[in-house]
Amino acid sequence: MNLKKMIFINTIITFLLCFITHFLYTLLPNPIFSIFFPVNESIWEHMKMLFTTILIASAIEYFILKKFHISHDNFLITSFIKAIISIPIYLLMFLPIYYNFGEIMPVTFIVLFITILIVNIIGYFILRLNHIKYGESLAIIFITIVYTIMIILTYKTPRLEIFFDTEEEKYGINDYLIKK
Does the predicted model carry a pTM greater than 0.70? Predict the structure, then answer.
């Protein structure tokens, strides 16, 4: 096992975990899960799921790297970078398709897989860099900031299309659109 093989293993693990994390809040609705997992079917909530799933998969990856004594550096900052850049990468591929053709599940899954593969390839190169000074500390700060923003956007959701759940006609966790 080497770092290159971990790219593909982590891609598969992350992709499969997305299917589990997608339904966690629905299965176990609680305030903690609302921070990390989708509370509705809006595009934004799925980006929250992607961010969290990449971090969970990174934790699994960390233990695999340790078990096989695979050399790496900058692990936490790499995990954060992978998670945060997955959002614009996914949206840049997904939104044009979504706005032109609507939701096409097989295409959505392909875009998801490609996004995860791209961020894992980027992560591979970051892991191979020399030690990034304060990288791990900065990652903890940035992850905390991102989850603080996620809490705010889940409970005080802006009335923007990306936050709108078209299935239940609501924004955020409890903000239903009033039908006239």
Answer: yes
